[in-house]
Design goal:
It is built from ten helices and 13 strands. The relative contact order is 0.14. An eight-stranded parallel barrel has the order 1-2-3-5-8-9-10-13, surrounded by seven helices. Strands 6-7 form a two-stranded antiparallel sheet. The protein is α/β, with parallel strands linked by helices.
Length: 304
Amino acid sequence: MSRPFRFAAVARMAESGRAWADKARRLEDSGFDALLVPDHLVGPRFAPVAALAAAAAATSRLRVGTLVFANDFRHPAVLAKEAATLDVLSEGRLEFGIGTGWMARDYDRAGMTLDPPGVRVARLAEAIQVMKGLWRGGPFSYAGEHYTIDGLEQQPVPAQRPHPRLMLGGGGPRMLRLAAREADIVNLTMRVRPDGSGPDTSDSGPDAFRRKVEIIREAAGDRFGEIELGASVLRVGAGEDVSAWSAADPSAQADTPQVLAGDLPEMCETLRRRRDEHGISYYVLHNESDLDAFTPIVRRLAGA
């Protein structure tokens, strides 16, 4: 049986607290399931924790989360405490997305070292164990290569038990296998270049996407059916032809979840087909400029 469709939108910033609350309420009223914020040190965007708390306070149903926390920016014991507090204050509406951290400009401008991908993924894998352990409640100890925890007990524990739904995003095999083992939600993306300069556009297109799903299926084993598969929507164009996008942007290829083109019935049918063929049921709109074009899809398909 297919999972119901869920939809989220990335929101980055607003000119005031009132405007931010209005954004959150618009998403809630339009049928979106979640508001997600990114986590970068450069560029015009709010810091995640305060932004999520404000969005949760302005709404009653809307889930709030990150796409995604950068693990390298915070010790997992600190992030576990922040996340548990957010989950309690939002009455169990936190969707906890986390990744390694990847954008070289964040690291360069802040004077931090961007370690090789393998090191960052290994550090993230340990951080997930630390956070899950702390969220269970009671004294927790851990001894790893990157983190050591000695009998730490944190309160509050999250409202969601045993922990908030964990979302991992990625496109490289190491991240996908980690997500298959640990995540409740996997957001499928293009892999990022090792130097942190941006997405690797050679990792786009339908064949690359299908390989990612197969990696998750193989690594997840019996728990594959428990994982909600999602993807980011980077291009929306009612009545437009995707070939015009592809000429300028190699990532904008047809038959991948990142691209939606056609009129409203065609776009809805595309999402139904992708769910039937690949199990993708959770779509995240990345660009607020596409909100008007995307909202009718949400109103028609959310929960279906």
